[in-house]
Specification:
With 180 residues, the protein is mostly helical. The protein contains 9 helices and no strands. The chain has helices spanning 7-16, 25-41, 47-57, 59-68, 71-81, 93-104, 129-137, 141-149, 162-169. Helix 3 (47-57) crosses helix 4 (59-68) and helix 5 (71-81) packs across helix 6. The protein starts with 6 loop residues before the first helix and ends in an 11-residue tail after the last helix.
Length: 180
Amino acid sequence: MALEIDGLAVLCAIAEAPEAFPAIRSDVTKAAHALVTKQLKAKTLDLPGLRAVREALGPQPLALIVDGLKDAEVKALATRLDKHHPDLKDAPAVTHRRHLMALAGTLAPVSAPAAKPKAKAPARPRAGAKSAVKSAAGPAAEPAAASAEGPTAASPAAPADALASAAMAARPPRRPRQQD
């Protein structure tokens, strides 16, 4: 009957007494790199998991391991952990690495964009009692209705018109790269 050993306990013993294992020093380094890389590539890794890895290893060892990952692996990890970041899809690999390390630190991921309200088609006035009541109330009824809605209707920091809102959300066009 074969007994199973506790791999973590053995690795801890090797780490506590490296002088007892001089022949496997390079193998320990390769194994550590492979194990952390496997953890980073795990589909179940989330932002708290990445931060736990950084806390356990420290920022420099994690940065060295992230530098050893392929560009596509870093991009996939960064975009998976920060799905709504607008610049990550077209960014270079160095930006993905920096952003991943910032996420591992204290940077919060970009939140999902707010759902845009659907534009309603203008209502056609009916020839009836409702249109007569509305025209009799006049424009004075509209501010009263708006003030009755309270602060939940629109935040005080919201732009006054839709055009200002759209202008603030627009991204400038991409410039072509200059070749040397």
